[in-house]
Amino acid sequence: xxxxxxxxxxxxxxxxxxxxxxxxxxxxxxxxxxxxxxxxxxxxxxxxxxxxxxxxxxxxxxxxxxxxxxxxxxxxxxxxxxxxxxxxxxxxxxxxxxxxxxxxxxxxxxxxxxxxxxxxxxxxxxxxxxxxxxxxxxxxxxxxxxxxxxxxxxxxxxxxxxxxxxxxxxxxxxxxxxxxxxxxxxxxxxxxxxxxxxxxxxxxxxxxxxxxxxxxxxx
Length: 219
Prior knowledge:
Elements: E1 2-6, H1 11-22, E2 27-31, H2 41-44, E3 54-57, E4 60-63, H3 65-75, H4 86-103, H5 107-111, H6 120-137, H7 150-156, H8 159-164, H9 173-183, H10 186-191, H11 195-216
């Protein structure tokens, strides 16, 4: 059976978690305590970069969420979460990468906004991503049209967390409708963090940022 190493508050790991559930793949979950366990020798043998997610499927070890998602699509092709045409495959990959490269890096800043309010520049950058995603979604139910695909998985593991941290989709009505549509899906319901865990994670992010700032100060 496939083994899935994860942390429930990691939107990167949640991508894989959602895909496993949507594709109805049997797996053994292993929770990794990111306050210490990712630096232990047992986990470093799986991922020397001390990140989640990791999967182990028979003799294969895989890190990096997008690589894992591609593997799951090829190894477990039904139900499919990828389009068949080159055009739509390119769009799906583009949306995955925009979410990964342009939105995920803003997440620690949003989590820390109660301590240090977001700058107008960061707010503009987030809104630029939301506008891009809104344009790509257009009037469709999902980024894959009428059916869920991996673009929805990747974006849908991220935007709900932004919303729970106080970022509004009010100016993007189609994106807000999409958001409401996906969060009621069974896979999202099963992987949604509770309020206490979310607050603990937010405090942990704030502490990491504070420590980093202290180390960055000149002596």
